[in-house]
Amino acid sequence: LRGSVDGWDFKQYVLGMLFYRYISENLTNYLNKGEWDAGNTDFDYAEMKDEDLPENLQREMVQEKGFFIMPSELFGNLLNRIKKAEKDAKDQAEKDGKEVEVADLDEDLNETLQKNFKNIEASAIGSPSEENFKGLFDDIDVNSNKLGPTVIKRNKRLKKLITVIGDMDLGNYQDNSIDAFGDTYEYLMGMYASNAGKSGGEFFTPQEVSELLTKISLLDNSGKMKSEVNKVYDPAVGSGSLLLKFAKILGKDNVRNGFFGQEINITTYNLCRINMFLHDIGYDKFSIEHGDTLTDPKHWDEEPFEAIVSNPPYSIKWEGSDNGILINDPRFSPAGVLAPKSKADFAFIMHCLSWLATDGTAAIVCFPGIMYRGGAEQKIRKYLIDNNYIECIIQLPDNLFYGTSIATCIMVLKKSKVDNQTLFIDASKEFVKSTNSNKLGDGTASNEPNNIQNILNAYINRKTEKYFTALVKQEDIENADYNLSVSTYVESKDTREVIDIAVLKEQITQIVQRENTLRAEIDAIIAEIEEA
In this predicted model, what pLDDT tens digit does every residue of 289-311 receive, in sequence order? Predict the structure, then answer.
């Protein structure tokens, strides 16, 4: 694709094809295992003919898996046809005594792909999984001129892409290697986000930051990690990497009622749903919705969430006071004021607080300006502090996120705190260098500090530690005009060299003496020259 498709558009084609391979192998393995367990060890779904399928098989699979794929439309069978066509072309060229050249065969490959994608989506129509599959392949435009000016050239690139994806060694399901698909997807998304700069940063949170947010949201008031939660939520879900950290840390079955999120960008919304499937999250265990969370929330009728994590877009515009309904919205009205129209940060924070369970925790990445700016933002900070909702503010290092070098913060919200104090942590020095950016070390690499655990320990210990943390009373925050900047409460360590005045004075005296000696020697030399 390189050279024809923009780097940022790689993800649609590469990640989409990876997903196509995954669901094909997922379904095949599921059906094969059922037959093998029943004693039919010679069965292979991929080798069946479409016309020989049992009449009720599709209906049963849609109920159990959420989708269905005919054997002829499986990724592996499409890959086999491509490879066979290429081999036949080479054999024929050698037989004819011509130079071996892979012909541009399968002239209708783009149409075949489009038909297969539509049939997969159509298989879920009328079932509970319909919304989870609807439009999933919309971003893979197999007829785009970006792939080539002619159908033949487009198909040539598609063939190469399918072959590369098909030849990737991602293990097999019998060896329980299913996470290889999810890990590959996360790796590729991180790579694309890094290369895409700001636009990539809007949809992908670095894995180590996701881990920190997830672990914070899982800590109970005693500092112990919960072993399960009712469900998790992200109001600006992006690619879903934050939600999926819960599946990694707890195990997906220990998120009892599933994974919930909303995303305004249609392409990123599709990426997120694909990401859920690739991490083996069943269609009935996630609800990812498309739309504007602030003005059109989709999960308002759900019970409150025990864990909320989010990295919402920094200081974007929103309707705010232009929408006369929002000031009476139960998510925003308790503060008595709306977030500024030009800066929606606190709208996301108030939304998270409103949907947080009484015994839950929300960990939200924030733009640092909201911690000290005046006006409506100061009034919302006052509301949060006066009602004792802010558990902790963590200053993160700069240059952690794709697309911005700004040192961001984490705001931790709780509705059931153990005291009326707020912990401030200065973690700005907790990082390791990683090529062009910084990252939170997890201690796995040789001689790498475990920055994530250092921050978690400070959060759990909840006490003042000079130059690192400060546990601040509510009235002290009041006296600071509700400024929540970490630097207001945690003193920065003075790293300047300590100078001994007596030693400095002696050094200056010696320098002056030496200067006088040199001056006298220079005067003598000049006098000799003049006499000569």
Answer: 999 999 999 998 889 999 999 99
